[in-house]
Amino acid sequence: MLNTVWKTIVAWFLKWGSPKWFYEQSKIWSLISGWLATFMISWAFIYGIFYTPTEFKGHMSRALYIHVPSASLSMMMYFAIGIMAVIVLVWKMKMSSVMLKSTAQVGAGFAVVMFVTGAIWGTPAWGQGIVWDPRLLGDGILVLLYFGILAVYSAIDSYEQADKTVAVLAICTVFILVFIKYAPAMEGLGMQSIHQDSSNVYSGNDSAIDKSYQRPLLMGIFGFMVMGMSLVLRQARVEVLVRYRTAKWVQAIFDKELAKGK
Amino acid sequence: MWMTFKSTCARELLLSSRKRGELLNPLVFFFAIMLLFPVAVSADPELLGKIAPGVVWIAVLLSLMLSLDSMFRDDFQDGFLEQMLISKDSLVIAVFAKILCHWLVTGLPLVLISPVIAIMLSLPVSAIAVMMLGLLFGTIWFSFVGAIPAALTVGLRKGGLLLTILVLPMMIPMLSFGAMLVRQQINDEVILPTLMLCVGMSLLSMMLAPFMAAISLRISLSE
């Protein structure tokens, strides 16, 4: 019984390895996740703006609801890139290289958002936009790595070679995430850590922060995750069309769209 | 295996002994960067001494990065890399030998002339031995880790700037620990843990980077 269920799940999952199946099926997923993300993030922002008390740290502390979700998302996406890099090099699945590229593009955007909101938040909270501490250093390296990956894609014309190049780079550099994660605990490097260590914001009763902060923060984190999924799917759909533009099924789609235009 | 190592080393060293002018370039570049700091920042010995640990490390990093591009490029152009790939000898050993020789002719000279530069920047004399020790292991990390992006970009026509972008983030960990080592020595703090970290990192890079560089060479020559 359990075996059949497992086999069904695996068969369903493996179907997504085909670009054609992916293109046909992902549209609805992209739409659902996009709308879900819109509602979740608007709820988080509205709650954060109107219902969160501001006595403690002032209005600027609301940057929390963008900064923390985009920071965690950009790190998560780099981890996903590391996993997909192994798949690209070992199993050479077609869709993994498409997803590798689209995840890198979306992740670079979130990394920049994290950096900019951090600087805006830091201006009142630390008295200066950028104060170098180990975690800021690690995040700066992360932004550099993302843009290095994008530079590789724009420099190499062959898809296969660019994918493999990026995969090797991602495997060599994915360890930076460990550094960013534990950076607040590192008091060396000639810098004091200013970022606080991560607090437990997830479990209900022993949460480190008050419910009025916790609810919009959690909603923001999960909303950003859903938004990331939607953006990656959209980007991957475009990438599939570009890469397989000579395939028959893509030509059929183009013909249909052209006929619609007339 | 030992034969592969020995013959590749002999070939590399012979080739670089025939191109003595190119060997001098990183050293001249190192010296040139060093001159910029008194001109652009300040000629005040006290201030220069304070920033000297970081400046020396950054200058070494930049000069080595300049020479990384040439690590595989000449061999790519004259077809030697293809011969390495199709030969039945281990590619990893050959790559290891190539990187090691590249370090011997570019990294080691930089380490050896660094005391001169450090004195010019009025770094405290007591810190010079520790700085050279840190640079010895740091340049090993720079050469071995930098070999991976160098191998990845060897087939590209305009690989130079791309190589720089890819190499820099990989070098930052070593740079931060190396500069920290010199600062700790100046401030009379315990240096052993940091030194051990530098040694460990350079040994790790010697162990793992040849494998990744060999994979990278196969990728960039597959086209």
Structure description:
Chain A has 262 residues and is mainly alpha-helical. Chain A is 75% helix and 0% strand. Chain A has a domain of 176 residues. In chain A, helix 3 runs parallel beside helix 8 and helix 4 packs antiparallel against helix 8. The longest helix of chain A has 33 residues. Chain B is an all-alpha fold and 223 residues long. Chain B contains 9 helices and no strands. Chains A and B meet through helix 5 and helix 6 of A and helix 7, helix 8 and helix 9 of B.
Characteristics of this structure?
heterodimer; A: mainly alpha; 9 helices; globular; B: 223 residues; mainly alpha; 85% helix
Unreliable spans of chain B? none
Measured on Cα atoms, how large is the radius of gyration of chain B?
18 Å
Name the biggest interface: A-B, 26 and 30 residues
Along the chain, the helix and strand elements of chain B come as HHHHHHHHH
State mean pLDDT of chain A (0 to 100 scale). 85
Structural class of chain B: mainly alpha
Report the strand count of chain A: 0
Low-confidence stretches of chain A: none
Could you report the average pLDDT of chain B, rounded to the nearest whole number?
Answer: 89
* Largest pleated sheet of chain B: none
- Please, what is the oligomeric state? heterodimer
